[in-house]
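Review form for a predicted model. The reviewer records the input and the model, then writes brief findings.
Reviewer: anonymous (R2)
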Amino acid sequence: MSRLGRPHRPFYRINAVDSRVKRDGAVIETLGWYDPMSTDATKQLKLDTDRVKHWLSKGAQPSDTVKDILAKLNLVDAESVKAERAARAQ
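Model under review:
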């Protein structure tokens, strides 16, 4: 996720990025966006699910926040995400 927007009004783009690239480096592909401040739930998230599935099948590792979003959309197993977090907390 790359943060955009103005102060106190975040807006995020969900991107596919090579792990060897700098934090704000080149993006391979933009997969969607997330607007946590939007009051309308339909305008809060836009995601190209076909491309997300493609990148996950290629071995992409989503961040924790993106995993939560994908779990809500049933693109990844929510129970495995919870188990992984619990294992790291120990």
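Findings: The mean pLDDT is 92.
Further findings: Helices lie at 49-57, 64-72, 78-89.
Recommendation: see findings above.
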